[in-house]
Amino acid sequence: MQSAAVERTIQSSGTLGSASFGISQKHAAHIMGILRSTLYSRKALAVLREYGSNAWDEHRQSGQRDRPIFVQLPSFMKPTLKIRDYGRGLSESDVFNIYTQYGESTKRDTNDAAGMLGIGCKSGFAYTDSFTVTSWHGGTKSIYNAVLDKSNKGEMQKMYEEPCGDETGIEIQMAVRPRDVDEFVREARTLFRYFNPQPQINLPLDSLPRGMAQGFITEHSAVQLGGTATREWIAVMGCIPYRLDLEQLKEGLTEAGLWEALGHLSGGLYLPIGSVEFSASREELQYTEATVSCLLAQFGKLVQEYIDDALTSLTKPDVKDWDRRLKATFMQHILKFPLPKEFKTWTDYSVVLLGKESNRPKTFVLKDQDWSEAYRVTVKQDARVLIHDGPKGQVEKGWHFNYRGDVIAVPVGEATYAEVEAELQTLIKTAGLEGLPVCRMTTRAYWAQPVGRNGRVRHPANQKHKDRTFTLKGRFDDSSPRSQYWESATPPEDEHVYVIISEFSPLGSPSLAEMVRDQQLFKRCNVPWPTIYGYKTTSGKPITGTDIENGTSYKTWREKAFLALITEEIKDDLREIAWGDLFASTVDGNTSEYYRRPFRGYVAELVTNLTRDLGEKHAVTRYFAKHLEGRAYCAKFQRGHREQVLDIATAANYQPKRSGPKEWLLRLMAAYPMLTLTGQSDYHMSIFRQHYKTVVAYIKTQDKIA
């Protein structure tokens, strides 16, 4: 990408000497450390973005614009990241003389590539101390290992080569810590959505909203229903999405009359490569005068394109009246875009469906949800006309609706559903509401006769109670009937995993909620989840595990499946969590004093004193020091990682074999029996704090005896 040229005229007088600024070779390692370690706040995103965009650039520069790059995201079972292009590859000279040099770039003379800083290909060092670069070039496949050496500058080492025929390209490969797998997947899901074409990747990516030449816009129906605006906008330059801070553009957008409208929309701008300036990390835009001017102009073009497109759609003969009204009211009343006079008839918020005196329907009466007579329909995104199709006695009391804006057509006399719908559609067309959804009331509401003073209701009969075999589906919600998480199924003939259920709840452990959480955990780990079958048992038709052919009980399968997720990295995490939680106990139901002052900072002070008096490697010193190390280790976890690791260990019934806090404490209690060292409270810290000199003297005496 070509950087903007800056012309400067310097005037000076009386100069006695001068020197040019540069990079100190003596401190080059320090500068490189800043560029690779402190530059990026989101390390996983930096790795995906820099190597992904490099591959995307190479396909454009090698004449393969429509060919997707290859991305293999890490998983718990295979924690390795691979990003590959099929471009020209790099010669050994290019790898050693360009790829390794900070600031070197071959893209500064073109706006056909998103890169130009000359630091992105070193971004792997922001996350790890080593990664692999494989190049297919000139008939040779060469593998290089990039490592941080003792100089802290980094070194590229050629490890292997072999003939490769006509194959070309570059592949970056690096190991990913299991606790970071979720972060890489989450960042990739957002980043690669905006690549065109989207990469060949082991992750389903959302498609972009219907786009226009200048970008894309998403309307929020929640705003029409009284919701709040979010102002979530991005700018896509090349293949890189940048979050837009509209506050930086507020003055210009207000002057253009767009500030309020953009608050009810979200979307993105498509920017020509090189049109705006960004930070060195490529995480944010730099809101320079040129960047602000470009963004304001692009917003103006996008909004005008959106308005033109909307007005064109309003005049199309195949657009139904209801859709035309929804669009017109949204633009006129929410976005405040003035519409031409010919569209004013479509901007009414409320439309008369029935006249009060004349034009009364013969087959039904129209009611609102308070069962008062209704005449109008409110133009809102989720509005419906519901035809009452329940028993005639189920009128008024007992109905529970999904949406407050619906109106109800209640049949009169012996009128059938078909007769009501036919007359209703005629009236809808006459009122200019053609396309207004009409559906059966039982699909949008349920009837339950209130019973007792507690207000509880009796739900309608569930047809699933007649079935015997089900499969688990859905997400758990304590407020929903348990039956909704099971779908009727045919008993399988092949090997499968099963659970026996009664009243749609599994017998014994785990519970339904735990099973659904297991499903979500496997999804976060990128591990396939099997179909779980549920066999219903009743007092009249009991069923046990011996009655099920080719089946493995969920409990048996669960422990083995989760045990397979216990990697060495997770074992380390579990051990450090145990040390970090060493004093996270309760005393008589109250939170441990360790989490309040003065105990929060006392352990660090205690370690310092014990190091001075007993030595850094003494078992007592190490006991408290390992707690601090555990807390520091756990503080680096990504959000939710700790809970995920503990969930996996609990589900697998995993017991660490390596020495942990409990084993260490037992050894200390055996060596120093007069100390009250328990793992249940912070009493041992209190002993050290109140009687430090006496305790240390006792420990030294015991050490001499031993």
Question: Care to describe what's here?
Answer:
- By secondary structure, this protein is of the alpha+beta class.
- It folds into five domains: 28-201, 2-Layer Sandwich (Heat Shock Protein 90); 215-322, no CATH class; 350-447, no CATH class; 463-559, no CATH class; 568-705, no CATH class.
- The strands form seven sheets. Strands 5-4-3-6-2-1-7 form a seven-stranded mixed β-sheet, with helices on one face. Strands 20, 21, 22, 23, 24 and 25 form a six-stranded mixed β-sheet that branches. A four-stranded mixed β-sheet has the order 8-11-9-10, covered by helices on one side.
- The longest helix has 27 residues, at 289-315.
List its salient traits.
seven-stranded mixed sheet; Heat Shock Protein 90; alpha+beta; 27 strands; globular; 706 residues; 19 helices; 5 domains; six-stranded mixed sheet
What is the averaged pLDDT score? Answer: 80
Q: What's the helix count?
A: 19
Termini gap: 71 Å
Helix content: 25-40%
CATH evolutionary superfamily of the largest domain: Histidine kinase-like ATPase, C-terminal domain
Largest sheet: 7 strands, mixed
Which geometry do the CA atoms define? globular
Adjacency order of strands in the biggest sheet: 5-4-3-6-2-1-7
Gyration radius over CA: 34 Å
What's the short story on this structure?
By secondary structure, the protein is of the alpha+beta class. Helix content is 33%, strand content 17%.
Present the secondary structure layout:
Elements: H1 28-38, H2 43-61, E1 70-72, E2 80-85, H3 92-99, E3 130-137, E4 140-147, E5 155-163, E6 169-175, H4 181-191, E7 200-201, E8 215-219, H5 221-224, E9 233-237, E10 240-243, H6 250-255, H7 259-262, E11 265-271, H8 289-315, H9 321-334, E12 350-352, E13 364-367, E14 376-378, E15 385-387, E16 399-401, E17 407-411, H10 417-430, E18 438-440, E19 445-447, E20 469-472, E21 486-488, E22 496-502, E23 505-506, H11 512-524, E24 532-536, E25 551-553, H12 554-563, H13 568-580, E26 586-587, E27 590-591, H14 599-613, H15 619-635, H16 641-652, H17 661-671, H18 683-690, H19 692-705
Parallel strand pairs: 1-7, 9-11, 15-17, 15-18, 22-24, 22-25
Antiparallel strand pairs: 1-2, 2-6, 3-4, 3-6, 4-5, 8-11, 9-10, 12-14, 13-17, 16-19, 20-21, 20-24, 22-23, 26-27
Helix pairs in contact: 2-4, 12-16, 13-15, 13-16, 14-15, 18-19
